[in-house]
Amino acid sequence: MKKIEAIIRKSRFEKVKEALHEIEVNFFSYWDVTGVGNEKKGKVYRGISYSTMDIQRRHLSIVVSDEFEERTIDAIINAAKTGEVGDGKIFVSDITTIHRIRTGEHGNDALD
Predict the structure, then answer these.
(1) Helix (H) and strand (E) counts in the chain
(2) pLDDT in tens, 29-67
(3) Domain holding 36: CATH number?
């Protein structure tokens, strides 16, 4: 099992959510986060200068079976990518076991 964490643009969240549902990844957690990126210059919009040092993003946490790892990553990349600085990052880590509290199931059985 893998835990896939993705930090993406908030504006791309709905597309990523739809892409995950299309590949049958129907459960994940997410929350709004603020981070500091590499871009040091500001942006100007309608004559007002905005700092891009503090970046508003959405953090997704998804646990999938090993078979879903690559297709989950591909779905996130394809839906979140704009080609500009600040598209985000994906982190993958191993999960040794999962337990479903309600039924006591564990392992892959607890994912469904």
Answers:
(1) 2, 6
(2) 999 998 776 666 666 667 766 665 667 899 999 999 999
(3) 3.30.70.120
